[in-house]
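Chapter summary example.
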Amino acid sequence: MKLKALFSLILVLLACKTAFAGNAVNQLNVDLSPSLYTTQDVEDGIDLTAEMTFPLGPIVGVGVLADIGMAYGKDDYLDSVYSALGAQIFFGSHDIGRIGFGFLSDSKVYSEEDSYYGDDDTTVSSDSTLKYAEAYLGDFTLGISGSNVEPEAESGGYTAEQPEHEITMYTLQYYPTDNVRLELSQYTEEIDDGATYYFYPGYVIVFEDTEIKANTLGLEFGVTSMVSIFMEYANIQSNNDKDVKSYSVGATIYFRGGDTLKDNDRWY
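The structure predicted for these 268 residues follows.
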């Protein structure tokens, strides 16, 4: 079954069910997530993400996101600074699932020394639209998302549009306890012919390919009702037989507190 048909089916099923279920967001929530990552032969980086969600009605919620990060390039890769702003609206219930639609605008500024376009800073920016669906099946969560990305690169007063990207992600989560989550995901990025400087989320990798795939394994556990710790391993491959491994570790701070990890994921 094609992705669009499968995605539409999930949206319809969840939309019908959520009309008779509980709240999409229980109350105002603010999360802060600092993290460290290293990507094999590419870079080491730090990242800080802040996210706020709040209810608009019984089954409607809104979320806003801000992200900043710094990367220190290895070998021939450049140092860079990353920033992003995003927003989403979603519909659902904590005991059934969620459907959502969002927008993200981000930019990555590479240092001027030996920049891709000469001696000037190079800025790679993009606007992305996102749609996703999650189904809650007891201790399991099934997720699917799709996004379209329109990047461009600017340096020395010149702007060059980059090939458009279509991204698909499938996710399976399992909660052995209410405070432990295991996650498997598969990420596919299809790129129109040509060079690209848009990369797997959270990692900065320069590929000149038409397809990028990533398989990830993640573990997160709640230390207290206000803090959780997460770890992730990613194996990133391209159609040109490039194979890159990445590792990340971080924490999420819930300023509201008082809930399990599973409730934080589904109620907010």
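To summarize the output: DSSP finds two helices and 13 strands in the chain.
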